[in-house]
Amino acid sequence: MKLFFISDIHGSVYYLKKALERFQEEKADYIVILGDILYHGARNPLPLEYNPKEVISLLNSLGDRIIAVRGNCDSEVDEMVIDFPIMSTYSNILYNNRRIFITHGHIYNENNMPPLTDGDVMIHGHTHIPRADKKDNIYIINPGSITLPKEGNPHTYGVLEHNTFIIKSLEGIVHEEISL
């Protein structure tokens, strides 16, 4: 199974379309969205082609292939227009005998770890900074932001296949990689 990870869309139909093109090219089985889907948030600028209604339409057309968690910019009213559940603070994916804890990152993160076991994986967004490393035998991964990257990073997404997590730019260039 191949999983495609995106985070921090923030209502940009422009960057979502680019990410969905990569999803098709990657031939992934599921899209995992790590929160902040529709709104840009008070601390962020309006992203390129900010259009939450079109983001809703694009994502709803793929709703049966989406696993999502809530970000700090997502709200209960969003579930009235989104056809897949988004209001869970976290979720777990079992992948090749490994637990993958997915969350946005505003509650659970490196400084507030959930109870995980050696070799488990925590994947989150929120910081808009791509990262893939291991701390205390727990893998900590952030695919970055497709829309509003920070610290000079490119617009990125992540792919998990064959126990390897690869962070790529929206142009498909490998940014970081870690074997699980």
Characteristics:
globular, Purple Acid Phosphatase, chain A, domain 2, 180 residues, single chain, 2 helices, 5-stranded mixed sheet, 11 strands, 6-stranded mixed sheet
SS-derived structural category: alpha/beta
Largest sheet report: 6 strands, mixed
Contiguous runs where pLDDT drops below 50 for at least 5 residues: none
CATH architectural label:
4-Layer Sandwich
What's the name of the CATH homologous superfamily? Metallo-dependent phosphatases
Question: What's the SSE blueprint?
Answer:
Elements lengths: L2 E4 L6 H14 L3 E4 L18 H9 L5 E3 L21 E6 L2 E6 L17 E3 L7 E5 L2 E5 L13 E6 L2 E6 L4 E6 L1
Parallel strand pairs: 1-2, 2-3, 5-6, 6-8
Antiparallel strand pairs: 1-9, 4-5, 7-8, 9-10, 10-11
Molecular structure report:
There is one protein chain. With 180 residues, the protein is an alpha/beta fold. It has a single domain (3-179), classed as Purple Acid Phosphatase, chain A, domain 2. The protein has 2 helices and 11 strands; from the N terminus they run βαβαβββββββββ. The protein starts with a strand and ends with a strand.
Briefly characterize the structure.
With 180 residues, this protein is α/β, with parallel strands linked by helices. It contains two helices and eleven strands; from the N terminus they run βαβαβββββββββ. The chain has a six-stranded mixed sheet with strand order 3-2-1-9-10-11, with helices on one face.
